[in-house]
Backbone:
């Protein structure tokens, strides 16, 4: 049956709790080796390089570029920036997780090995789909920041003379939310279901925006936008609180280097265990909810018909 957005949130939590062992193992297979490798690179290479360059008056520009590039890709344990590698791992993990959630949705048995085996052929198309998301988001944010900078400059000249910095702060904060909201609108309309559409329907990256738009439609756009904009903020706030709390505890304990390294690696892995499964579980369940709403998917399922995997080019609902 169709559910409210809050109902999908609750069902995602419930499914994760009931099948935690399976979903956690899927995450562990991809995350634990990657996270250990990432923290070794940060501890052995990036930290010593950063310490060395901090003590040099005129640091070599090539070394600085190398350091910033390494931090951008691998992240920094004490920074809120997780690194591109962490984001790529989340993208790749979404494929086997979505397959597992789909099997559980239909009451079929799912295993870690089978979910990874079935996801292999979809990794590259899904990667190209998320590349589209990244490029469009960067373009929107770049243009948005330019426009915001111009508007902020004009407004600043007025408000600085009026000596009301509080109003300026609120105004700039609202302006910064506009590019994020616009990116979420594009994501909700064309790319919300990149993983389910690629993995569960086998669509190429070029066809995902059309099929996504077909499922979302006009009636479900604002619902989709609320999910695309609200869920990342909730997850980021939760993870920021978790991250700050753990870092504060580690600072107080003054652990030996090896123990600190293990603790930091465990912290990063714990973040993955929460973030990676829940986001994909929620989107996969929301995908099926939209198919129920638009295509009567539950009716075909109850009649034991084969679920439709090719996009229906019918009229927009």
Residues:
């Amino acid at each position: 049956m169709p559910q409210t957005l809050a109902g999908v949130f609750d069902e995602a939590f419930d499914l994760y709790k009931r099948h935690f062992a399976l979903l956690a193992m899927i995450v562990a297979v991809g995350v634990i080796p990657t996270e250990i490798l990432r923290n070794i690179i940060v501890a052995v290479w990036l930290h010593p390089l950063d310490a060395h360059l901090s003590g040099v008056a005129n640091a070599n520009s090539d070394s600085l570029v190398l350091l910033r590039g390494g931090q951008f890709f691998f992240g920094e344990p004490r920074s809120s920036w997780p690194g591109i590698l962490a984001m790529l791992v989340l993208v790749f993990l979404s494929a086997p997780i979505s397959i597992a959630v789909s099997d559980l949705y239909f009451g079929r048995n799912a295993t870690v090995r089978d979910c990874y085996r079935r996801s292999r052929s979809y990794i590259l198309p899904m990667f190209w789909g998320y590349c589209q998301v990244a490029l469009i988001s960067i373009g929107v944010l770049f243009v948005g920041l330019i426009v915001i900078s111009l508007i902020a400059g004009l407004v600043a000249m007025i408000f600085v003379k009026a000596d009301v910095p509080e109003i300026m702060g609120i105004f700039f904060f609202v302006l910064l939310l506009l590019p994020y909201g616009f990116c979420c609108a594009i994501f909700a309309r064309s790319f919300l279901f990149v993983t389910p559409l690629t993995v569960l329907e086998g669509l190429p990256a070029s066809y995902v925006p059309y099929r996504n738009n077909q499922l979302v439609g006009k009636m479900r756009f604002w619902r989709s936008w609320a999910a695309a904009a609200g869920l990342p903020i909730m997850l980021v706030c939760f993870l920021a609180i978790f991250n700050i709390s753990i870092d504060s505890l580690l600072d107080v304990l003054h652990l030996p280097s090896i123990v600190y390294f293990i603790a930091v690696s465990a912290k990063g892995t714990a973040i993955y265990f929460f973030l990676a499964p829940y986001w994909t579980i929620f989107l996969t369940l929301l995908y099926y909810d939209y198919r129920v709403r638009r295509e009567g998917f539950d009716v075909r399922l109850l009649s034991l018909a084969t679920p439709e995997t090719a996009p229906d080019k019918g009229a927009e609902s």
Observations:
- The CA atoms of residues 25 and 131 lie 27 Å apart.
